[in-house]
Design brief:
Distance between the termini of chain A: 19 Å
Shape of chain A: elongated
Largest interface: A-B, 33 and 33 residues
Helix content of chain A: 25-40%
Mean pLDDT of chain A: 92
Number of strands of chain A: 12
Oligomer: homotetramer
Order of helices and strands of chain A: EHEEHEEEEHEHEHEHEHEH
Largest sheet of chain A: 6 strands, parallel
Chain lengths: ~260, ~260, ~260, ~260
């Protein structure tokens, strides 16, 4: 962590920053510059509370050098995470070298519709069927999904086709049902920072597909994933679904370059 | 609703759109243009399902003329909504001509801290005290709030100062406690589209302060408010808290002009 | 064009809109709705001045159905535009089925550097060499390019390798030199709406590579291209170079889906 | 400047960074951390070329502590800049304690229109009249302004009302005329990073109103102003005109908080 002082900060202000860093149990390393002085905080284990330093007189800015996430990082675990589902010949692995497709309709509407859709996506090469039993809809007057009966129709489609199923949970109660019946629990973009839901998902015992929020940074996405890992769930699949842009020409702005950035971090 | 046909759409394609509109129980009004034909759907009561029309051959775009929200609109209720809290001399009215201030610390940390903060914000002119008992934090390793004991400390500060209290609820269980103990239930920016939580808040019997999501459009904000009204809660206070911008020079981009836009709609 | 009236607009206000449309020489087609009335303007040839209608009492919004660009659109010219450079065996075609690569350093720095870079990019499969002789730099204190001598070094690299060359022009004077010496004139992202420069580029007699502005919509990009076509230059190559996003994790947000949108329009 | 090493960077990689910093003539100050090592570059006078350090093996990131602009900063000149126009009783000062208004129509259309508009804005309290003689328009088919005759009409309106005049220049030729006839030369949002034009404006001898680009950061705005100062023009008026947002509910997103940020920097 680097504490950057204002241009013209007094010697006393710099001394105060140093003594607070030392009080907190870290080492302070002053770096005088031509424009301004900065003070390095050495030995940061990721638990330093910056707010105490930000409020000191003469402080211009606190720059974080460490990343706030841990278990999701390559620095914690250098190897790629592979999430395996299903066993034997029908097994599916996310995060390996193979590209696997999840496909299906927006919502589950009827048995006929979902079974037919399942057959089509299977034929087209998908290995997991998606379809909403609960749909987060901007308007309270839009169709909100069939709910629990929708889950049963998805299970039926799985039976008929052998596809695995992935569907969204919107709250704690629904998440219990989804975790029981589906193969992958989906957390939608609008709930990416619904931390209460993330904690429950982190204990649900099923892989979680975490969709990136419509204007979440990569760091926020990784921190939301960290909520799942911190609760013991390491089977996390991240989903880039596009962010909100300024151009109405496309509904979402697909952030392709976020993918290698996430892979690297 | 206006169905805009592709340049070069055939006469049959236009006829098909007209007949679908009529099947849906509305009137169709074709408008041939030099570049392309459009078909007006007359008599839209806000319940038309556009997806059926969007999928027809030759259709370029469906343009919505009606707004998707109802009870929050001026067209439903022309007068301004005034939310009144407290009675007698200490009463507070949001949405009237007076500007009322809600102030307080980010989190409730201790009795001494919150009571002292309450005294200061009262002296500075605030009429409602805010402070988080539950804090939605990007990182699972950041302080998440004192929880229920935090609510009791807020109640203590109210007792000592006479201020009303407003605090955030992050899930159904917490919302029950907040609605019981606080004067205003806050729904945070990250939960603006947590529709399960909105439905519970719509039935909680207390005024709700709904914060705009970090990249929510005005229409989405109004639709989230509509969730509350649709459940019977008309005491909704909207909060512009800034949106996510591209410039790291400010943490949030305060969208001042959204305020008159919301007032007008 | 569709003129949407306010909810509660009077019959007189609607009549006034109709009579103005007729005065302008078009046909008006009123479409009464449950929530509000809309009036279609029939026969729009793309030259209607909306501002006259927007200011009329009772008008809520004017919705454009026609696109403002013409010559760049598929509706004007259905076939893909192929820009051909060089002749014979070394010929290059942009916009056809082949993927062609333009590559090279940010700036031209020295003969040795640019010739060496040219050799490397040629070996790697590029057919056009890029490199800035003039560099638009955010800071006046950053290296601004070698200017005209940089053009000569590019020509030297072309001679040595047979690659075609593409380089940016920042103003009218520089554009003359670039058009004379380079094979493709580049208009940079910051100048995408420098309309004076676009007009000059439209008359320069060389193909133009037009980079999308850092927060230009697809429509604005196409309209800037229209400036070039309107001056008679049909050899326009559009470049998606990423837009400005909110996430500091990547410098630019590459808008992949803009490409099929542009192809379609 | 702080050079942050990758987690797991070797001792040799750190040593290399240190020796390069010393070769460049600065002092290196290594700061070992628990997660990673950082190396401070001490004595940065704002001319350090970061690219040389960014490319070294083991380097994760280079963080800039110094600001890239100089003459526009409070650190260069602590006092507020006051731009004075006109003399005697009719004098106007931008940047002082008074709020002064510039107002007028989008374009100059005719003598009658601009003189009438001038009278109205004067009556409403404005001290400077604006109105475009050249208009940067997204479409080549939109009205582009009257050009030089428009300047004469503005001068006529000044004569009639005593208002000062401010109008936009779009290229070098036009800027000469505008500087000759107007009191303030306007650089529009689309040309904020037209550096060739900024250099000319920096030598034009008249105050410049520099509008913020539609998605320019505060730092980019200040650097564009720096172009003007670097050419000797210290009479720069910055204009916050709103940035591009994601919500079609408002045309521009007025960035109110940018104003105190700019004042502070």
């Amino acid at each position: 962590m680097l504490i950057v002082m204002r241009h013209g900060a007094t010697r006393d202000e710099v001394e105060k920053v140093i003594s607070v860093i030392e009080e907190m149990g870290y080492q302070a390393q002053p770096m005088p510059g031509v424009q301004r002085t900065a003070v390095g905080l050495v030995g940061n284990d990721g638990r330093v509370d910056a707010s105490r330093l930000e409020g000191l007189p003469g402080v211009h800015e606190v720059i974080h050098v460490s990343q706030p996430y841990k278990q999701v990082s390559r620095e914690w675990k250098a190897d790629a995470t592979v999430v395996r589902l299903g066993g034997g010949a029908g097994g599916v692995a996310f995060g390996g070298t193979e590209v696997v497709a999840i496909a299906g309709p927006c919502s589950v509407e009827s048995e006929r519709q979902i079974v037919e859709a399942a057959r089509q996506v299977k034929e087209a090469g998908a290995v997991v069927l998606r379809g909403g039993a609960w749909k987060p809809r901007s308007s309270p007057y839009s169709f909100q999904g069939l709910g629990k009966p929708g889950l049963r129709l998805l299970a039926k489609a799985r039976e008929e086709t052998g596809l695995l199923i992935c569907t969204e949970a919107m709250d704690e109660t629904g998440l219990g049902w989804v975790a029981e019946m589906a193969d992958i629990v989906q957390i939608g973009a609008r709930n990416m920072q619904n931390f209460s839901l993330l904690k429950v998902a982190g204990r649900c015992g099923k892989p979680v597909l975490l969709k990136r929020g419509i204007s979440a940074t990569v760091q926020e996405l990784l921190l939301s994933a960290e909520y799942l890992l911190a609760e013991g769930n390491h089977d996390v699949i991240l989903c880039e679904r596009g962010v909100r842009g300024f151009d109405p020409a496309t509904r979402n702005l697909f952030d392709l370059t976020a993918i290698p950035v996430v892979h690297k971090l």
